Amino acid sequence: MDFDLSDEQEQFRKVVRDFAVSAIAPHAEAWDRDHSFPTDVVLAMGELGLFGLPFPEEYGGSGSDFTTLCVAIEELGRVDQSMAITLEAGVGLGANPIYQFGTEEQKQRWLPDLCAGKTLGGFGLTEPEAGSDAGGTRTRAVLDASSGEWVIDGEKAFITNSGTDITSLVTITARTDAPGSGGKPEISTIIVPSGTPGFEVQPPYRKMGWHASDTHGLTFSDCRVPEANLLGERGRGFAGFLAILDDGRVAIAALAVGVIQACLEQSVQYAKDRNAFGKPIGSYQAVAFKCSDLAVMAETARTLTYKAAWLKDQGRPFKREAAMAKLYATEAAVTATREATQVFGGYGFMDETPVARHYRDAKILEIGEGTSEVQRMIIARDLGLPV
Ligand SMILES: Cc1cc2nc3c(=O)[nH]c(=O)nc-3n(C[C@H](O)[C@H](O)[C@H](O)COP(=O)(O)OP(=O)(O)OC[C@H]3O[C@@H](n4cnc5c(N)ncnc54)[C@H](O)[C@@H]3O)c2cc1C
Question: I need a surface site. Which of 91, 106, 252, 358 has the fewest CB within 10 A?
Answer without folding.
Answer: 106
